[in-house]
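Example 3.2
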Amino acid sequence: MTGGAVYPAKDARMSGARFREFFPQWHHFSEYIDLRFSSSFWRRVMRD
């Protein structure tokens, strides 16, 4: 890695595996997800 930043909401090709690799503490955020509301981003990165 070259030290750049990743903006996952704008990277439509980022896989769920890469998201979890780049943001290893994602599960802390997931506690605040309202299951009645789902964004296309969250569905994409959580499906694989």
